[in-house]
Fold this protein.
Amino acid sequence: MGSVAVILKVMPESADVDLEGLKMAIREKIPGVSDIRDEPIGFGLVALKVATVIQDEEGATEGIESQFNDIPGIDRAEIVDLSRMI
């Protein structure tokens, strides 16, 4: 099996969440994170776009979303892009 590059949109619980602390928590708890960028949403809310690499196996995408959603300060995480690495 190969690897899959995944981009997730991570929504914090509120505009008051410490984004730098959230980024550190993501890097500590999620293996393979290669990039985290801010994406302004509006009304002071900023989402995070997180790039990571996972193994191409059944249930891996649901598993990575679940790992993100278990991190305190995250309201929800959803995959917005997925591509198989060659």
In short: Residues 3-84 form a domain with the Alpha-Beta Plaits fold (CATH 3.30.70.60). The mean pLDDT is 92. The longest strand covers residues 45-55. The CA atoms of residues 22 and 66 lie 16 Å apart.
